[in-house]
Amino acid sequence: MKRAERLHALFEALRRHGPRGCSAERLAREFGVSVRTIKRDLAALERSGAPVWSRPGPGGGYGLAAGASLPPVSLSPSQAVGLMAAVAAAPDAPYADLASAGVAKVLDVLDPRTRARAELLAGRIWVEPGSVATRATRSALEEAMVEQRVVRIRYTSGEGVTTTRDVEPVLFAGRNGRWYLVGWCRLRDAMRWFTVSRVERATVTQTPCTGHAVAEVGEPPASARPVHGRAG
Asked: What angle do CA 156, 160, 165 make, to 5 degrees?
């Protein structure tokens, strides 16, 4: 990890540890560097204006000043570009447009130097997304999921058979580069996986879902995980 990235990560580590703070020794273990390096980094953060406090002696450590005004976001150029690349590479992912707007907000509040470096690095990443459903179709599927209402879809299967059916949305699943709507198909009276890019049209009805749970879909693959952002 380069020093600039470590300083960003160190700031976030102090934020996570809260008002009780953390010892330099523990931070050094977290980042795999020497205590001397951590103390030098903490001094650099303080010089940059970060609200860092220090308390010497046994039980002492470092933390962020209580009630201090913190920046709304603190990202390294690599972290910012990571968000940009993830969104650009998955335009068919659920709520991708909202994610793109969120990334734009993140870039707007970065300090000018970090934003300039992020934009320069972003120019070195190309993506070529595959075919996706129309924006109107994806918006309808997303709305149906949020509101838990039945969605009426026109769907063409891999065998080329086109049907219109009512589906109770249960979850979105991404597998092997494709996104699926998993839901209770009222036509087949069973749980079905629908490839989102094959949904030609979708309309949210006023009919509420009947309460089919994620557990009814079955056990996810061992490598699958929810996108709640928490480790484990």
From this structure: 30
Q: Are 132 and 92 in contact (CB under 8 A)?
A: yes
Cα three-residue angle 128-131-137, rounded to 5 degrees: 130
Length of the chain: 232
Max Cα-Cα span within the chain: 74
Of 211, 11, 212, the C-alpha closest to 111 is: 11
**Where among 64, 87, 112 does a domain terminate?**
64
What 8-state DSSP symbol labels residue 61?
E
Q: How many domains does the chain have?
A: 3
CATH number where 148 lies: 2.30.30.520
- Looking at the fold, whether 84 and 106 belong to one and the same domain comes out as yes
Distant-in-sequence, close-in-space partners of 206: CB < 8 Å, separation ≥ 6: 149
Q: How far apart are CA 74 and CA 206, in angstroms?
A: 42
The model's pTM: 0.64
And the tokens for 6?
A: 């470590």
> 186-209 as b/e, with b when 16 or more CB fall inside 10 Å?
eeeeebbebbbbbbeebebeeeeb
Strand partners, 166: 152
* DSSP letter, residue 182: E
Q: What is the DSSP letter of 57?
A: S
Q: What pLDDT, in 10s, does the model give residues 135-194?
A: 899 999 999 999 999 999 999 999 999 999 999 999 999 988 889 999 999 999 999 999
Q: Which two tokens stand for residue 151?
A: 């969605």
Token pair, residue 135, equals 């924006």
Please report which helix (H) or strand (E) contains residue 178, including its range: strand 178-185
